[in-house]
Amino acid sequence: MNKSTKGAIAAGAAAVLLLGGAGSLAYWTSQATVAGGSFSTGNVSLTGSDCSTTPWAYTTTGHVGDPTTVGDLVPGDTIAKDCTITLTGQGDHLWVSLTAPSSVTVTPTPSSTSLQATVATTYTYNGASVAAGTPFQVVAGANPVTVHYAVTFPYGDATTIDTDDTQSLSVALGDLNVTLTQEDPNSTPAA
Amino acid sequence: MSSVQPRHRAVRRHRLPAVVGGACAATVAVVLLLGGNGSLAYWTSTAPVKSGGFNTGRLTLTPVTPAGGQSGCTAWSLTQTGGTTSGTPTSSAVPALLQPHDVLRQTCTYQLQLTGDHLRGTITSSAAAGYQPIAGVTVTQQSMTLGSTSATNGTVAFPSADGGTTLTLVFTLTVDDTTTSQSNPAPAYGATFSTTGLTVTATQGRP
Description:
The complex is a heterodimer of chains A (191) and B (207).
Chain A: H1 3-19, E1 43-47, E2 49-50, E3 57-58, E4 72-73, E5 78-90, E6 95-99, E7 106-109, E8 118-125, E9 128-131, E10 136-137, E11 141-152, E12 170-173, E13 176-182
Antiparallel strand pairs in A: 1-5, 3-5, 5-11, 6-10, 6-13, 7-12, 8-9, 8-11
Chain B: H1 18-35, E1 44-50, E2 53-56, E3 58-63, E4 77-80, E5 103-115, E6 121-125, E7 131-134, E8 137-146, E9 149-150, E10 156-158, E11 166-175, E12 200-204
């Protein structure tokens, strides 16, 4: 008889001895229901604005004696204006960031195939400057966001210097779509 | 005497390839995540900003062509008769055939139109450093004036100090002589040329 067989016989004998005294293998269990209650979720949304009538201002320095009010742009000029949109939000850990495209559609009259307009945006919310893409915490309620909206008429380079079809244009800018994105509350800075 | 029995190999089970197994596990994980009506969403919102538009300026050089001229320039006139002796020509008419040491002159006039809040730049001509339509013939920019401002090193800046917008250039055309020691000997007899490469360019500078 090998060792394994002997061991099995010994284990069986031990079990018989243990149960021999009318013992039991049972164990007790009990269940209870926990009433979890409920929770509510927050909300967040942006509302756009029409600031077409807000005048542009130059951020291009220009030269001494140049006009300070925006009339006719030349390649290399940058103009900017502040537009106010509304951020409505509610949420204990509601952090968001704002972004906008780096270009905007242009509709020149007469038509021009060379004209481009690049865009840069920064924001002011709750009294603080906010860079594009930087998370910030939402204050409950509907609050203004100032969009510092800069448009550049790019100066040409060696390959696009002959872009005379950008002269004497009346240019309509398309909507600049500002996008709000909720940030992961577990990865935003501590409040 | 014991006999050696062949050992039976266990029946090999067909196992799923690791990739298939991994895919199944991932699927199960997704099902588990979504099974409790969970959500992987985050919130976004987009709002349009209407900003209006802008106007662009203009930069042009418009030729002011005198009678008998073309493209803003007078006809070439003879200012020095060449040949074996140099001297003042008896007529300003350009001879049918030029000869070494002939010197011709022409004046070109343009109206500069500037529209743009920050529109500045420079005006140059292709003859500022000497333009050669053909070997042995050289066109030289003698002067350039915008308003009352004369060119410096062949270039004039715009807008001019006095606001003048009339651009005037004087060019001379010289036929070199036959001296072999010259780096630019006279053109071969019978050669023909045109001055279509003589250009005036206004270039906008970066504001």
